[in-house]
Write a structure and sequence with these properties.
single chain; SpoVR-like_C; Spore_V_R; SpoVR family protein; alpha+beta; 12 strands
């Protein structure tokens, strides 16, 4: 134990400077992260933290052991290594594995600073607590762990009953109203709150498809009049809250439903609170991981936070993370953030060029010398090539140049000339940390995205339709006499400023909907693939922009889980619970659905019903489809699955009920009808 602590202290001491400087660099780049406490842990401790969702203590339950075993096998068989884990708290807590190389530790630290910024500034994380600056999640989870452990150890309570009850609640942990603050979930909204939602949605560039699917006008209107009791027309989305209010337990001795025990209500309250806490992380996985990967890459690579001897190791590990197969949130998120930055910077430059005499949206591509523009957009040599030897070049820019941190520049010159001791806190090593002598404006110019090699040509690919839109909203008559004069007014920070705005208000669904454009899909070679019944395997089904977008939105709407709501708590006038699967073209796994109904029965105490829609295939049609190598057309049929505590029944769903849950104009079936033609 002593050796472990000594090693942890040694690693922690070696990281004091990287932690301090990474935090300072993040703030220079415009990030505003929570303070971060860094902890050094060994391999087993890291696996335990991952199993616990990033926290050191959770309530007793078998799920944590299963998660630990899964992570241990992932490491053991080389399927992936965990370098860090960070939680949403103020201060945030980040855990670094002591066996990481210094290059990996630096990458992790820069990654964590960006995560802490996202936690602190994204509105969806602020919905968990009234005071977003103080989530205090670690304390909350520790209180829950202690309370549930006490229930399990109580001689008056059977431990097995507690574990079974937790299992039942966890089956429904995603059936919450994640679009509402935790303090207000389950209660009616006021008109002021609904109007505020409308204003936010109007400024987020959400498509009609997503507005109808998630935030339609009927849904908004219902928020003002939503009653505490569900109706067929106004179902309750927060299933856990409803079961907390009205759920019961079946007593085998009395053979009837009885009130829940106080400990059951308490456990349900705690687990529902935790579900709301973790909801924001599930809702922003692509945004959050992409955000962290973007700033990590800029700090480690572009700003050379990785030393010369560390860069190859860093680049290798980063490429593995971004190159992982399947739906990779790191890669997709980073690609989208870079696209937002590039497209914003392109609009900024195009806006200035369209104000030059003789340049219009009609002749833009012929009138503009794009090679000359690229040369003019390059950062000033003094900004681009900062070293200890070139500091005087920054002085020549003048004492009022907003791109230069003049105080840091003075200290850097004094440090270079031996006038400041290297151990002094005023010491500035411009060779090692050139960013210290620049401001946000200077760093924005230094890293302007359209100057990067991989983005050359992005400006000239601007479409005439976008140029026309830009011109349409130019209300002033300002004109430049030359391209040179126009580009002098380019705001190099436009892309970063826009990224921070988006980071504040969006979640994955709205982010993908607003910024996953046809240009993005084409340039990044995205496509859809699906299981085909004709061939019995997976095949590429489409590379069309609309199909890719719908497929991705499906993956992230409601955490990628089926949407289920309470439609009636007295179905058929027998006190039965009626749940409805809000069908979107994707069929439920009925085997899993039966398991969830069994657990729901444990929380309701009486028979439970689930409405859903299934796809049925005629065997004759299937055989013909196989011969012709095409997909068969299914028949969609409404079903009601009923569980009474002992057995299941499947009934045909009444047409009026089927209409309530059926997909209408939003259907995420992404296969083109002639996909094999």
């Amino acid at each position: 134990m002593r050796d472990k602590r000594v090693e942890a202290r040694r690693v922690a001491a070696s990281l004091e400077e990287p932690v301090r400087e990474a935090g300072a660099l993040a703030r220079k780049l415009g990030l505003e992260p929570y303070p971060v406490n860094y902890w050094i842990v060994d391999h087993d401790e890291m696996n335990q933290l991952i199993a616990y969702g990033g926290f050191q203590r959770r309530y007793p339950h078998w799920r944590w052991g299963m998660g630990y075993d899964r992570q241990q096998k992932t490491d053991q068989f080389g399927m992936g290594k965990a370098f860090e884990i960070v939680n949403n708290d103020n201060p945030s807590h980040a855990f670094l594995q002591e066996s990481n190389s210094l290059a990996d530790q630096k990458a992790v630290i820069t990654h964590v600073e960006a995560h802490a910024d996202f936690f602190a500034n994204n509105e969806w994380f602020g919905m968990f607590v009234e005071d977003a600056a103080s989530p205090d999640a670690a304390a909350m989870l520790e209180r829950h762990a202690e309370a549930i452990a006490n229930y399990m150890e109580d001689p008056e309570i059977d431990r097995g009953e507690v574990e079974a009850f937790i299992d039942a609640v966890l089956c429904l942990e995603d059936t919450i109203d994640q679009h509402r603050p935790f303090s207000e979930a389950g209660s009616p909204r006021g008109s002021d709150e609904v109007e505020d939602i409308r204003e936010k949605l109007s400024g987020m560039n959400i498509s009609e498809d997503v507005r109808r699917q998630v935030f339609d006008e009927a849904w908004l209107e219902r928020q003002e009049t939503e009653s505490a009791e569900p109706t067929l027309e106004e179902p309750r989305k927060d299933v856990l809250a409803f079961l907390r209010e009205h759920g019961m337990r079946y007593d085998e001795e009395t053979e009837r439903a009885e009130e829940m025990e106080p400990w059951q209500k308490d456990v349900l309250d705690m687990l529902r609170e935790e579900a709301y806490y973790f909801a924001a992380q599930k809702m922003t996985k692509v945004m959050n991981e992409g955000w962290a990967a973007y700033w990590e890459s800029l700090m480690m690579g572009d700003e050379r936070f990785a030393g010369t001897d560390e860069f190859v190791t860093y680049a290798d590990h980063q490429s593995r993370v971004l190159g992982s197969p399947g739906l990779n949130p790191y890669s997709l998120g980073m690609d989208l953030w870079e696209y937002v930055e590039n497209s914003t910077n392109r609009r900024e430059v195009a806006d200035k060029l369209l104000r030059v005499e003789g340049i219009t949206w009609r002749n833009f591509h012929d009138a503009v010398d794009f090679d000359a523009v690229e040369a003019l957009l390059k950062p000033h040599p003094a900004i681009d090539g900062v070293t200890a030897a070139t500091l005087e070049d920054l002085l020549e820019l003048g004492p009022d140049d907003p791109r230069v941190d003049h105080d840091a520049l003075e200290r850097a010159i004094a440090s270079r000339d031996g006038e400041v001791d290297p151990e002094d806190e005023d010491y500035v090593d411009a060779d090692r940390y050139p960013w210290k002598v620049l401001t946000y404006e200077g760093l924005a110019e230094r890293h302007f995205s359209l100057n990067k090699r991989q983005n050359r040509g992005f400006l000239r690919r601007v479409r005439r339709s976008e140029l026309e839109r830009l011109t349409r909203y130019m209300f002033d008559d300002e004109k430049y006499a030359s391209v040179e004069a126009a580009l002098e007014d380019v705001d190099y920070g436009a892309g970063w400023d826009r990224m921070r705005e988006i980071r504040e208000s969006h979640n994955d669904v709205t982010f993908l909907d607003a910024f996953l454009t046809e240009e993005f899909v084409t340039e990044n070679h995205y496509f859809t693939y699906e299981y085909t019944r004709a061939s019995g395997d997976f095949r590429v089904t489409s590379s069309q922009y609309e199909d890719v977008k719908k497929k991705l939105l499906l993956q992230f709407t409601n955490f990628g889980k089926p949407s289920v709501a309470v439609y009636d708590d007295n179905f058929d006038n027998r006190g039965e619970l009626l749940l409805g699967h809000q069908y979107n073209g994707v069929m439920l796994d009925l085997k899993q659905a039966r398991g969830v109904l069994e657990r729901t029965y444990d929380l309701w105490g009486r028979p439970v019903n689930l409405m859903t829609i299934v796809k049925e295939y005629d065997e004759h049609d299937l055989e013909i489809a196989r011969r012709r190598n095409r997909e068969p057309e299914p028949t969609e049929a409404g079903k009601r699955v009923r569980y009474d505590g002992e057995s299941f029944e499947v009934h045909e769903l009444d047409a009026d009920l089927e209409e309530l849950i059926a997909a209408t104009d939003v259907d995420y079936d992404t296969k083109p009808e002639d996909w094999l033609a």
